[in-house]
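STRUCTURE:
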């Protein structure tokens, strides 16, 4: 009985302590120092929220690399006791409203830190559910051979085992600048991701009636890549957008398999 009472008091005291602003400020400052040391990027966030009984850790208004990446809210929920075991179990990760903004100035300010190849094995972590909601990306100026573009996106993942995740990614309201105007489209990607092999089960992309279908695998350790790609060109649309050059102005479709 005394042990139960003492345990309850200790847990309650710990929960009270974690809610104090100075504890959150200290934790966020140390997190910023760690991210800066590991990646070279700045890290800022507000409102660290820790709930011991539900195993929830949450952050608001996250900024990485200045305002290159902004995340409205991040939630991580898991069994806190499993974090001290050999195989941590995270029930759910939620990333709400991530915004990625790329332009010449922002990219010039990024100073990524290089790392030697990893020798130690990755920790074995189980993740049950991964959710990314209401994301957006905007490329405002051409850089690294990337055209001006913007898109909304979302992703949903389901854990298949330690360090393995089945992910469904959807991009909507996509617009990419082409020589003849903005090519609008959408994309859907399904992938099986693990530390040993990346399997692209299905990728379907469409821009201005131009379609791309792809599947394949990539092994990071051996850098072995295999892929199957099929493209379908709508000639009239491709000519209008400037993907193809022709004075005759043909119509119809061209299908290629790689």
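SEQUENCE:
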């Amino acid at each position: 009985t005394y042990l139960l009472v003492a345990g309850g008091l200790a847990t309650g005291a710990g929960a009270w302590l974690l809610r104090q602003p100075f504890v959150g400020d200290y934790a966020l400052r140390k997190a910023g120092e760690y991210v800066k040391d590991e990646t070279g990027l700045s890290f800022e966030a507000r409102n660290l929220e820790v709930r011991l009984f539900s195993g929830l850790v949450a952050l608001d208004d996250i900024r990485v690399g200045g305002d290159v990446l902004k995340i409205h809210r991040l939630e991580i929920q898991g069994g806190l006791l499993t974090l001290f075991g050999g195989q941590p179990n995270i029930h759910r990760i939620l990333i709400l409203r991530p915004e990625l903004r790329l332009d010449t100035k922002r990219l010039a300010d990024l100073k990524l830190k290089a790392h030697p190849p990893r020798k130690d094995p990755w920790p074995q972590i189980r993740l049950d559910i991964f959710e990314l909601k209401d994301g957006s990306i905007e490329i405002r100026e051409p850089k690294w051979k990337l055209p001006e573009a913007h898109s909304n996106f979302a992703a949903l993942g389901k854990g298949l085992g330690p360090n393995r995740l089945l992910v469904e990614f959807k991009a909507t309201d996509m617009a990419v600048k082409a020589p003849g105007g903005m090519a609008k489209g959408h994309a859907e990607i399904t992938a099986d991701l693990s530390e040993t092999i990346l399997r692209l089960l299905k990728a379907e992309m469409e821009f201005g009636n131009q379609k791309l279908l792809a599947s394949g695998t990539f092994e990071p350790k051996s850098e072995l890549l295999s892929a199957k790609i099929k493209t379908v060109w709508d000639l009239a649309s491709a000519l209008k957008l400037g993907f193809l050059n022709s004075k005759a102005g043909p119509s119809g479709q061209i299908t290629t398999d790689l």
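REMARK: The first helix runs from residue 2 to 18.
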